[in-house]
Amino acid sequence: MFIFDAHLDLAMNAMEWNRDLTLPVSEIREREKGKTDKPDRGNTTVSFPAMRKGNVGLCVATQIARYVKKENPLPGWHSQHQAWAQTQGQLAWYKAMEKAREMVQIRDTEGLENHFKLWESNKGKKTIGYILSLEGADSIVDLSYLEKSHESGLRAIGPAHYGPGVYAHGTDSVGGIGVKGRELLKKIEELNLILDATHLCDMSFWETMDVYNGPVWASHQLCRKFVDHNRQFSDEQLKELISRKAVIGIALDAWMMVPNWVRGKSDPKEMGVNLEIMINNMDHICQLAGNTNHVGIGTDLDGGFGTEQGPYDVDTISDLQKIPALLSQRGYSETDIQKITSQNFINFLKRVWR
Ligand SMILES: [Zn+2]
């Protein structure tokens, strides 16, 4: 079954983790053996061959770079200009991957239709479609930079990531969006970009909903009902998103899937982290919505963790092909399963880009 993954940090892996994603996962792991500079060395789950094997033919791929003020202990750049330059290096990698026919950027309905035709008919090395997104808006020095990004194909943007950002407060921080945040949201609406609500803290989330009227999704998200932490959305937040025709992509990061996960210590098997938990989250959103129109997949499988912090039944991203059978066991019909694995996000894009 065709799979749409609404959140992968592909360029971050290429440019910061130094991974050649054109190689099989096994080769990337092999070369990282013995390295300890990142917690997920030797454990990666994502590369282009694995995506092709798993029929993950379309994804939302990010640019990401944080700006940190002096008092912010999080890792990040010391100026917004540096953060911008980092995202431009990432963009250059995407462009190089396009030239190598590994990837193709999708920026409108026509591109979407063409991509599906090519994906089905191409018997050789299939070109993976990507929609460009910015995770955390710190690198937008001023709004002219957002216009520039839009021209480069940017189609979605999350105002914040972790901590206090320039335009909003993200995960594990508390605060609103301020004047700058409001101006950013206005520009997002004007450019018909998709707002990614993932990572907004509660206060910034609700302030955003007060002023924003454009398209919104949550690209890599789980439900607070199962793991009570500000990174997950409450039922009220999920209902708000559903009322705005959002699609919510379910992520596969272990600490957000089960309570009491301790990074670097807990073991997926011991903690019972498997794809069933993803299905529980999907089912919960379907129950809240009363239909199957608002949930999809947004794995974040390369978001700074690998097999050490993912479901034990996912060795590589190609294992997403286990999802249809798991949904079927829960009574989901073939049509529902197609909607969840790709069609909901595709319909969303077609509506927004019309
Ligand atoms: Zn994220």
UniProtKB/TrEMBL annotation:
Gene3D superfamilies: Metal-dependent hydrolases. Residues 28-41 have a biased composition (Basic and acidic residues). Residues 28-47 are annotated as: Disordered. This is Dipeptidase. It comes from Flagellimonas marina. The lineage of its organism: Bacteria, Pseudomonadati, Bacteroidota, Flavobacteriia, Flavobacteriales.
